[in-house]
């Protein structure tokens, strides 16, 4: 995907967090115009040891061949490790500043701008950025604070994008608005799956 975007003339930065020992990466990205940011977690050595200790055991055991047992065992193992990963990504302010400098927010705004003229995006954006705001498409509106229950109750509201906090999820369920959930850490994954399972959301996990 990164190569396709770069081939169409865009500047591309590939953020590559190493959660497991990813092998055979040489030649995976072909375009020389793609900048790659490799991100190693503080507990990367622990993850490698866990991978070496657990994967071979699971792969060769009766657990892996039993769909019910393997789903419970592997889900528990992955969730414990990914939670530490997601927490570090969430709290790493230096990483946030680095990614922010790559203008990812601009890419999101440009994507919104490609929507039909009658589609409006209300974006809760708490940091004041006057220069960025000047470049926003006309259908994108920054708000530092939004009365969320009132917004969700508005009949013009069609889709709600959220990280999957419990409060927002309860409001979504109450109003019956469809949601796109993008969980980033902690209990958000379970909450997103729960709402998706009941038909109230699409979850990006």
From TrEMBL:
Signal peptide: none annotated. Pfam families: UDPGT. Belongs to the UDP-glycosyltransferase family. It comes from Caenorhabditis briggsae. It catalyses: glucuronate acceptor + UDP-alpha-D-glucuronate = acceptor beta-D-glucuronoside + UDP + H(+). The lineage of its organism: Eukaryota, Metazoa, Ecdysozoa, Nematoda, Chromadorea. PANTHER family: EG:EG0003.4 PROTEIN-RELATED, GLUCURONOSYLTRANSFERASE. The keyword DNA repair does not apply. One of its GO terms (molecular function) is glucuronosyltransferase activity. CDD domains: GT1_Gtf-like. Keywords: Glycosyltransferase, Signal, Transferase. InterPro entries: UDP-glycosyltransferase, UDP_glucos_trans. It comes from the Eukaryota. Its EC number is 2.4.1.17. It is an enzyme of class 2 (transferase). This is glucuronosyltransferase.
């Amino acid at each position: 995907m990164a190569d396709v975007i770069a081939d169409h003339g865009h500047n591309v930065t590939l953020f590559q967090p190493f959660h497991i020992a990813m092998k055979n990466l040489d030649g995976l990205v072909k375009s020389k115009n793609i900048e790659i940011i490799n991100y190693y977690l503080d507990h990367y050595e622990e993850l490698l040891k866990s991978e070496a200790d657990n994967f071979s055991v699971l792969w060769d055991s009766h657990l892996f061949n039993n769909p019910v047992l393997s789903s419970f065992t592997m889900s528990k193992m992955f969730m414990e490790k990914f939670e530490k990963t997601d927490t570090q990504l969430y709290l790493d302010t230096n990483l946030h500043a680095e990614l922010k400098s790559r203008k990812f927010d601009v890419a999101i705004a440009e994507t919104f701008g490609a929507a039909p003229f009658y589609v409006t995006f209300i974006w809760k954006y708490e940091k004041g950025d006057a220069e960025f705001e000047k470049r926003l498409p006309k259908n994108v509106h920054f708000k530092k604070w939004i009365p969320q229950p009132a917004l969700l109750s508005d009949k013009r509201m069609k889709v709600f994008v959220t990280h999957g906090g419990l409060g927002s999820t309860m409001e979504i369920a109450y109003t019956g608005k469809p949601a796109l959930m993008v969980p980033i850490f902690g209990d958000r994954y379970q909450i997103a799956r729960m709402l998706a399972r009941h038909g109230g959301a699409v979850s990006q996990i």
